[in-house]
Design brief:
This protein folds into two domains: about 60 residues; about 100 residues, no CATH class. Helices cover about 40% and strands about 20% of the residues. It is built from six helices and seven strands, in the order H-H-H-E-E-E-E-E-E-H-H-E-H. The strands form two sheets. Strands 6-5-4-7 form a four-stranded antiparallel beta sheet, with helices on one face. Strands 1-2-3 form a three-stranded antiparallel beta sheet, with no helix packed on it.
Length: about 180
C-alpha cells in the first residue's frame, strides 16, 4: 500500500533527477557554509555535480512523456528496438543516418532512418521511450536543446533533428 497519491507519485517520478540534483546542490552549499567549515573545499565539487545533475535532469524531464502510448522501446547494445502493435523493428546506432521528429502523427513520432532499411517510427510516448534521450544525446553533433525546443513547438511538419552526413551543398560557400 502506498501513502502517496498516484498522481503525486507520477510527478515525483517524472521530476526525480531535478529533485535529486537540487538536493545535491543544497548539500554542497551546506558543506561550504555549514557550521563545521572543514568540508568547504569538498562542497564546491559537490555543488557543481548537483548543478550538472539538475540541468540534465531538467532536460530529461522535458523529453519524458507518459509512457502510456503504443508499443515498447528497448535500447540494447547499440540497437534501438521497437515492438509496436502494428509495426516494429530495430536500428543499429552505427547505421542510423537521420533522426526526424514528426509532430503530425498522432501521437508524435520519432522517425529513425537508416540506409537500406524501412524507416522505424516510434511514438514519443511509447513505454520505455525515455531511454532514447541518452541515445539521441550521444549522437555526434546533435544539439539537445534544439531537439527539446522542437518537441515543444507547435510545428505542422516533420523536422530533421539530426543527420549523420549533412547535405554537402548546404555547406558550400557562396564565393
Amino acid at each position: 500500500m502506498s501513502f502517496i497519491r498516484p498522481d503525486a507519485q507520477a510527478a515525483l517520478t517524472r521530476w526525480r533527477e531535478v529533485l535529486i540534483g537540487g538536493a545535491v546542490v543544497l548539500l554542497g552549499l551546506f558543506m561550504i557554509v555549514g557550521p563545521a567549515g572543514l568540508l568547504g573545499w569538498v562542497g564546491w565539487p559537490v555543488a557543481a555535480a548537483g548543478l550538472a545533475l539538475l540541468i540534465v535532469g531538467f532536460q530529461r524531464t522535458r523529453f519524458r512523456r507518459s509512457g502510456q502510448g503504443p508499443g515498447t522501446v528497448q535500447v540494447d547494445e547499440g540497437q534501438i528496438i521497437y515492438f509496436g502493435p502494428l509495426s516494429g523493428g530495430a536500428v543499429a546506432l552505427p547505421d542510423l543516418e537521420q533522426l526526424i521528429y514528426d509532430p503530425t502523427a498522432k501521437p508524435a513520432h520519432w522517425m529513425l532512418m537508416s540506409q537500406g532499411q524501412p524507416t522505424l517510427q516510434i511514438p514519443v510516448n511509447a513505454d520505455g521511450a525515455e531511454a532514447l534521450f541518452d541515445v539521441f544525446a550521444a549522437l555526434p553533433g546533435l544539439r539537445t536543446q534544439r531537439m527539446l525546443t522542437t518537441m515543444h513547438a507547435n510545428s505542422d511538419h516533420p523536422v530533421v533533428i539530426w543527420q549523420r552526413h549533412p547535405d554537402r551543398a548546404s555547406l558550400q560557400r557562396l564565393h
